[in-house]
Design a protein that fits this description.
Distance between the termini: 52 Å
Number of strands: 12
Strand content: 15-25%
Number of helices: 10
Order of helices and strands: HHHEEHEEHHHEHEEHEEHEEE
Amino acid sequence: MNKRLCSTKLEKKLIASILLSLIISYLLTLLVSTAGEAVLSHYYDASTILQDKNKEALSDFKSYITKNKISINDHDKIETWVRDYKYIDLYIFKDNKLLYDSNRYDVNNASESLLFLPSSSNNYTDISFQDQDAKIYIDSYFEYKYYNIMSSISILIGFLCFVITMLTLIRKKISYIGTLENEIKILEGGDLNYCITVQGHDELGLLAESIDEMRKSIIERLENENEARTANSELITAISHDLRTPLTALLGYLDIIEYKKYSTTEALMQYIHNSREKAYQIKTLSDKLFEYFLVFDKKNELELETFPLVDLFNQLFEEEFFMLYDQNFTFDFVPCDTMAYININLISIRRVFDNIFSNISKYADHSKPIRIRYFIEHETLIVTLENKIKQHTNTVNSTGIGLKTCSKILEMHNGDFHTEKTGDDFTVVFQLPIKLVS
């Protein structure tokens, strides 16, 4: 319970504001009360108002006795007058014996009450009751009425001071809360570029900072979605353009064959050959489009298998080398010699190798060796492939889908894939988590 109390900066500031407001309001109440009592005391000392009030009460009591024909022992009716006529004490005597004391009903111990009464006979007044005469003494304290009023005024002033002081101390926080409310409404209206005002280091400041970070995250997410949407649109546009060109040529060749617009059998065979080439080209492009949507489908999950790292990767590299030897490529290959196991989806990893070496086949300089290294570092497999880019490379038909596919496949394996181009040097680096053999 104690640990929870004042556990936040905002609570501490609020409690400090309350304490300071209480101290200020108490001091002001004390000052007003003291000053008011001093003024009232001076006023009563300098005037005869109390004597006049006392005479008025005495006259009114005599009239009350006469009018209501009250006897000396009719204490209930006398008590009624005392209650109605506030701020007085009434004493009734007969033959120096106390018969009535407005402060008590039991007057058997008269000597105790008489200790508080004046000894001078000038302070007693004769009065005639219905049945007999007696003496009365009236002790008035009408000034208490005004003292009570002054106390109420001082308490009210203290309360108002507390409220005003408290509002003054927390006005900045209240204003800041209003500012945050208005700024959040601006964000709700769709203006995510509006920055949230961050003030202070308490919970309100941290809340504002969190809201602003959330705003930035939403903007970043929307930008990423727009970039992905734009990239998809560009990809579809590029592949559609790439498909249209061979498809138009294919239709032209088929029209020539169907309407027998060729002149020789050799020309017919050439048109059939060209049609076949265009059909394969269309198939390649459609496979890449299918591959893109297959790999970038977020619901697609890979089934992983465990393989010996060195045996598998040496085999994968040898298969790719074999396909490129006929194109006069040479390789500077340094394999890994550390025993380890790797969890992968073999079909997807083969696709990564096919895409990488397909790019090498298209764009690498045949006269320069392809430098390949793979090794283990901190339980991570690191593979690097470096090649020189051949001059006058025609990249018009490239969509970049191969490298995007590689990146996505490696990401689905909890790995990493990136490329770097420096001058005419092109480098591919990808990483995969592995399990060392103990």
